[in-house]
Structure formats: structure tokens, C-alpha cells
TrEMBL record, chain A:
Pfam families: WDR54. Residues 1-314 form the WD repeat-containing protein 54 beta-propeller domain. It comes from Amphiprion ocellaris. PANTHER family: POC1 CENTRIOLAR PROTEIN HOMOLOG, WD REPEAT-CONTAINING PROTEIN 55. The lineage of its organism: Eukaryota, Metazoa, Chordata, Craniata, Vertebrata. This is WD repeat-containing protein 54 beta-propeller domain-containing protein.
From TrEMBL, chain B:
This is Organic solute carrier partner 1. Residues 275-287 have a biased composition (Polar residues). GO terms for cellular component: cytoplasm; plasma membrane. Pfam families: Oscp1. Residues 273-293 are annotated as: Disordered.
Length: 317, 394
């Protein structure tokens, strides 16, 4: 179904962090940006679609104008907002936001350093107001619902009336919170975990798709919390999930060296969901830490692994 | 990242170090009756070996040292941790040359990296730690005073780690993996057992038992809105897995179930590392650690406590033949030192309190300052700088 294509070499190897691959497709310029975190550095690669041009950039997490040492990065992700795209980098010391090509840092938010360093966040979710241009970004809300540190979050901004919920957040105990955006964020539902970390979460057509440390994937109806499906998907901790929204393809990747492709079918009339397994790829002797589709149809996907200095790419045959 | 990583890193690396030293000391052993006949030749008799192990273990589990270790803190830099182990390895009459110390450290780190990577669940790192602790306890079972220190450490480990969630253990594991990033030194015992490839990467099998708490992959279950199971389907998991084994014990005594962290060396299996072909990979990790580390002073507190608790060795010992060689011959050891690629140098400042008289005096002065003031007084930062500068200057 898929075959391997030429890999992209990166300057450092990928660190073992959840969801350690960011992908942003810039159609007008026929480019795709990739981000891979290595300790305190974000490796950014801009790849042209014809496969001929690659350019590299490295970003470090540090406060502007402060010459202290950099801190370890937890995650780097692209946020596609209606008017602009941003690259958000979270580290032990704070949150940085860059223009999507990594050229300018537009915002820095320092995290309070507690007296005794815990290295684990409190579970608070920070909401920022981002203008369509410039760096006038402000903290607008702090959502405090989770008690454990946040592992991942996902949003869906579909205009359809059926989808009320547009944000889901997951934490280290496996609890999921479903929110609706607006003047203020409103908590719609809380889906309790089973004491097992949820490392990756996605939201699609009102369905939460969550990956857990036990290797299971669970699908819930976001607003009601009804469990639609449970898959014993992987033999080790799941590190990354991604959905291709136009085709309903789901990508899952874990420490067990396997990337799996699934197909999700929603039938709103019967309020049911189907999950079909389509394909496996084994990245030999590698604990996978990031896997993302490169386009909205799922025609291609990319994978990163711990200690691997390349982004492996697969394309549909 | 996790601030509870250091104790596990130290205890597991220390455990591996003891396995290797024990094996080398036995390999260089001469039976007691022969030793008596050739009194001028230095030889390791049973007594000496036990004494070395006891001395090192006593230092490892020194009360003040452990107090410092168990405080929530960032992981030490590679350089600082290597220096701590250098000092620990010299906490007895045993002497190691630079090349042997480098090799010892390579083996220790690659062994623990292997164990961390292969742990089925992050929490299993604690079981690996208990395997090391169980072996250490066995080394000192005839010495009650040290045994009680070891038991105390078990209690501290249980107190600190058993309440942690799976997510917190995964964070600890991720912190350790960042520490071990890009290390691909080939170890002959791993190569022979086919757990490491010739490119230095470990073999991760897609077969075997799944971790405790995980199901064998392959089942998709669909539920109705009322929670009844509607359908179940199987898919091909691409591997060859079987159900999880029983869970290991997290108590002071018990069957740990996992073999990771147990002693894989024996007298007949020599330990070798291969330097060639690894320089390309290591260049990457030295780049990242180039940034100055302001936490170096805190790291040195630990080191100072370690050094402060030891007697300064008298100069006579270096030639008395209590030297341990991690290589088969002296020539090999010398050759290894010369041919070691620059990128793999640990950049350790060799604090041999025995050799340099001037260094000895300065070290004694600074050690004295440390033990006087206790911890973090306002003046402490400049003393930390002195020690740091002194170490850089050696």
C-alpha cells in the first residue's frame, strides 16, 4: 500500500519525546516544513516538493536577550490558525512562538519556576490570543481542569454544525477533556482515564482518537464520552497518532518499531464508527517517536525514531 | 524533564561498574598459595578483591552522598558524571589507567542504555535497578555495616519510586534516553549475543512477551452506544508476540522476573569494546553538549562530598601493582589510549590525588572550604567557581 521513499537527513538525531515530528505543508510555495526535536534544539527542514532543494535551520529554546543555558524541549508543533501558521515550541523554561519558517520568534512566555524543580507541568492549559500579523500575542485564559501534566492536545476547526467540540486535551493519567472555544473556553466533557498515560490524541468529526502507554487506541464520541472502539494496536507505548482529515486515514506509531495505517469510517445515522486495519511498516531496531501524514489525504507520511538522524518517508504505491 | 532521574542513573551505572570490576579482578586472580611464593609480583588474591568491592560499595552508599543524590535535581552533564565515577573507581587500593577507565565507562553506559531501551515498560527500570541492588547486596553479604547502608538505599528507592505513575516513569526514561543519545559504542559481548548490530545500534525484537498491562496487538472491538460489544476483528500485527509474563517484585526481596540488570559477565567472557566506526555518530552528541552548563556547580557539590569523605591516598600506591587492566595486555591498553578518537574523549579532568603535589595541595584546600561552609551559602558560588576553574585548569 505504501513504499519507502528517499529519507531526509537531519543534523541531529531525534529525541525520545511524544509526537516528535511536526509537518506543515505550504502549497503556494510547493514546500513542506518538518521539525524534529533533539534535546534543546529544534531541527527545521524545508523540503521542496520536487525533492531537489532542502534547507536546514536550528532553533534553540531560550529567552530572548538572556544568555543563560538553554533548556530541554518537550514538543515543537505547527499551529495552523485561520490567518497564519505558527511554530510553537514548549520547553522546561517557557513557551516560544515563531513564524512558521522559524525565522523570527514572535512571542516568549516564561513558565513559573517552582522552588523545587519538578520537571512536570501542573496540568494547566494556557490559551493565547494571536493576531493575524505581528507579535502582539497575549495570554487570554488559563484552563485548569487537568491535575496531571498535559501530554497532547488536538483541535478541529470544521465549520460543520454537527461538530460542537473543537478541542481535546489529554494528560498523563489518561484523562481527556473536551472543550468548545469561544469568548471563553467551555468544558463540554471529561472522559476519565484508567491510570495510564495518554500520549497522543486527535479529534476528527467529533470523535476523539487517543493513544495510550499500554499500546491501546480508543475512540470516543467527544461530547458524550461514549466508547466507540478499542484497538489493541501496539506492543509498546504509543508515541504518535495522526489523522488525514479528507480520507479518514489514521496513523499510529509506537516504541515497538511499528507504524500502522488504519481507516476510520463514521456513520452519523447509526452513530457508529468502524476501524479497519490497512497496513504495517516496521522501522527495524528503532523506537518510533513521531509519525505524521504529509498531506490531508494521507498520500504520504513521515516517521522519526529515537537516535535516528533521518526523517523516513513513505508514499502510497 | 524528570528531576528524579539521577539516583537511578547512578545506581545502575554503579552496579554495572561493579559487575565489570568484579569480573576483571577475578580474571587477574592468582590463588593465594601461589601468591605467597612470588611475593614481589603483585597479584589479586581473594581478600584484596573483596576489599576493593567493599571499599567502592561503601563509598557509593555513603549516607551524605546519597542524601545529595536523592534530592530532586537536573541530571548531571556527561563530564560531571564521568568524574564522579572516576573518583568512585579509585575509592580503594585499585588503580586504573586512563584507557581502562575510558573502557570501563563505555561498557557501563552502553550496558545501561541497552537496559533502558529494552525495558518493556518504563516502570521496569525500577526492576532493573533492583536487580543491580540485589547483586550489590550479594557482594557485601558478609559485611553487616555496609549491608545496612545498602538496605537503607532499598528503602529510599522504594519510598521515592513506587508511588510514581507510569507517565512519570516514562518521563524518567525519556530523560535517560536524552542522556544516552547518539552513543553507539560496540560492545563485543553484545555483538556476540546478537543484541547489538555491527553499526552499534541495539536489536529491538518484534517478538516476545508484551509488557505487563499490555495486550498482544491484533484485536479491534466495536461497541454500541450502550456499551455492548458489537463486533470483534483480528488484524495481522506484523510480529510474533505472546502474553505478558507475571509482574516482578518491587519490594526489598523478591523475584524481579526481568533479566535486565543482572550480571552478564563471567570470568570466561572477556569484555571488549570496538572504537572504529563509532566516531561519526559521536560527533553529533558532542556538538549539543558544547553549551556552557551553569548547573556545573551543583554537580560539583556531589563530587566534593564524595571526595571529602575519602582519605587522600599516599603516593606510594601507584606503583604497588594494584592496577587493574580492562584490556588483555598492557600493550593493548596503551594502544587504546593513543588511538581513541577525539570525539569519544570524555574530557575528564584526572583528579589523581596521589600524583601531582601542587594539585594535591590545592584540592585539599578547596575540599576543606567545602566541608566548612556546608551547602548553599552566598559565598558558595565563588567557591564552586574556584573548584570548577581548578578542574578546568588541571
Amino acid at each position: 500500500m505504501y513504499h519507502k521513499e528517499k529519507s531526509i537527513q537531519i543534523k541531529n538525531s531525534a529525541s525520545a519525546l511524544y509526537n516528535n515530528l511536526g509537518v506543515l505543508r505550504i502549497a503556494p510555495r510547493r514546500l513542506t516544513y518538518f521539525t524534529v526535536v533533539h534535546a534543546n534544539v529544534v531541527n527545521m527542514i524545508s523540503a521542496s516538493w520536487d525533492g531537489l532543494n532542502y534547507s536546514h535551520r536550528q532553533l534553540q529554546s531560550k529567552e530572548p536577550n538572556v544568555a543563560t543555558s538553554t533548556s530541554l524541549i518537550m514538543q515543537a508543533a505547527f499551529c495552523a490558525l485561520p490567518s497564519r501558521d505558527l511554530l510553537v515550541v514548549t520547553s522546561q523554561k517557557g513557551i516560544q512562538m515563531y513564524e512558521s519558517d522559524g525565522s523570527i520568534m514572535v512571542y516568549w512566555h516564561a513558565l513559573d519556576t517552582p522552588e523545587t524543580p519538578t520537571g512536570v507541568s501542573s496540568g494547566a492549559i494556557l490559551v493565547f490570543d494571536v493576531p493575524s500579523k505581528g507579535s502582539n500575542i497575549t495570554l487570554s485564559e488559563v484552563l485548569e481542569e487537568h491535575k496531571e501534566s498535559i501530554t497532547d492536545m488536538a483541535s478541529e476547526c470544521s465549520g460543520s454544525q454537527e461538530c460542537i467540540a473543537n478541542l481535546v486535551t489529554a494528560d498523563d493519567e489518561g484523562n481527556l477533556c473536551v472543550w468548545k472555544s469561544g469568548e471563553e473556553f467551555q468544558l463540554l466533557n471529561k472522559i476519565p482515564g484508567f491510570d495510564m498515560s495518554c500520549s497522543s490524541v486527535k479529534l476528527w468529526k467529533g470523535t476523539v482518537v487517543a493513544g495510550y502507554g499500554t499500546g491501546q487506541i480508543r475512540l470516543y464520541e467527544a461530547v458524550t464520552g461514549i466508547l466507540h472502539a478499542e484497538v489493541n494496536a501496539h506492543a509498546r507505548w504509543i508515541y504518535s497518532l495522526d489523522i488525514a482529515p479528507f480520507s479518514g486515514l489514521l496513523l499510529s506509531a509506537a516504541e515497538d518499531s511499528l507504524v500502522r495505517v488504519w481507516h476510520l469510517t463514521m456513520t452519523p445515522e447509526t452513530n457508529s464508527v468502524e476501524v479497519a486495519h490497512l497496513h504495517n511498516e516496521c522501522v527495524t531496531d528503532t523506537q518510533i517517536c513521531g509519525a505524521k501524514f504529509c498531506d490531508g489525504d494521507g498520500y504520504a507520511f513521515a516517521v522519526t525514531g529515537y537516535d535516528l538522524s533521518e526523517i523516513i518517508r513513505y508514499v502510497q504505491s | 524533564m524528570s528531576s528524579r532521574t539521577l539516583p537511578l542513573l547512578f545506581i545502575n551505572l554503579g552496579g554495572e561498574m561493579l559487575y565489570i570490576l568484579d569480573q576483571r579482578l577475578r580474571a587477574q586472580n592468582i590463588p593465594a598459595d601461589k601468591a605467597k611464593k612470588v611475593s614481589t609480583i603483585a597479584a589479586w588474591i581473594e581478600e584484596d578483591r573483596k576489599r576493593v568491592m567493599n571499599d567502592i560499595i561503601t563509598t557509593m552508599f555513603n549516607k551524605k552522598f546519597l542524601e545529595e543524590l536523592f534530592k530532586p535535581q537536573e541530571l548531571y552533564s556527561k563530564k560531571a558524571l564521568r568524574t564522579v565515577f572516576d573518583r568512585l573507581a579509585h575509592a580503594s587500593i585499585m588503580r586504573l589507567n586512563q584507557a581502562s577507565m575510558d573502557k570501563l565507562y563505555d561498557l557501563m553506559t552502553m550496558a545501561f542504555k541497552y537496559q533502558v531501551l529494552l525495558c518493556p515498560r518504563p516502570k521496569d527500570i525500577l526492576l532493573v535497578s533492583f536487580n543491580h541492588m540485589d547483586a550489590i547486596k550479594d557482594f557485601v553479604k558478609d559485611t553487616p555495616s555496609i549491608l545496612s547502608q545498602v538496605d537503607e538505599t532499598y528503602r529510599q528507592l522504594i519510598e521515592m519510586y513506587t508511588p510514581l505513575s507510569s507517565g512519570e516513569f516514562q518521563l524518567i526514561r525519556q530523560t535517560l534516553l536524552i542522556f544516552f543519545q547518539d552513543m553507539h559504542i560496540r560492545v563485543s559481548i553484545f555483538l556476540k549475543d546478537k543484541v547489538q548490530n555491527s553499526n552499534g545500534r541495539f536489536v529491538l525484537p518484534t517478538s516476545g512477551s508484551v509488557p505487563h498491562g499490555t495486550q498482544v496487538p491484533g484485536l479491534i472491538r466495536i461497541f454500541s452506544c450502550t456499551g455492548e460489544e458489537l463486533t470483534r476483528q483480528q488484524f495481522n500485527n506484523g510480529g510474533n508476540y505472546n502474553a505478558a509474563l507475571r509482574e516482578g517484585s518491587f519490594e526489598i526481596f523478591g523475584d524481579r522476573v526481568t533479566k535486565l540488570g543482572t550480571n552478564m559477565y563471567s570470568v570466561s567472557r572477556p569484555v571488549e569494546t570496538h572504537m572504529s566506526g563509532t566516531s561519526k555518530n559521536s560527533a553529533q552528541h558532542t556538538k549539543v553538549s558544547a553549551a556552557p552548563n551553569p548547573l556545573a556547580k551543583e554537580e560539583l557539590n556531589l563530587l566534593a562530598r564524595l571526595m571529602g569523605g575519602l582519605e587522600v591516598e599516599k603516593p606510594g600506591n601507584t606503583d604497588s601493582g594494584f592496577r587493574v587492566n580492562l584490556f588483555a595486555t598492557d600493550e593493548e591498553e596503551e594502544e587504546a589510549l593513543i588511538s581513541r578518537p577525539d570525539e569519544l574523549s570524555y574530557g575528564v579532568i584526572n583528579i589523581q590525588a596521589t600524583k601531582d603535589q601542587q594539585a594535591n595541595a590545592e584540592l585539599a584546600k578547596i575540599m576543606g572550604e567545602f566541608t566548612e561552609s556546608g551547602d548553599q551559602s552566598p559565598g558558595a558560588s565563588s567557591k564552586g567557581d574556584d573548584l570548577l576553574a581548578m578542574m578546568d585548569g588541571l
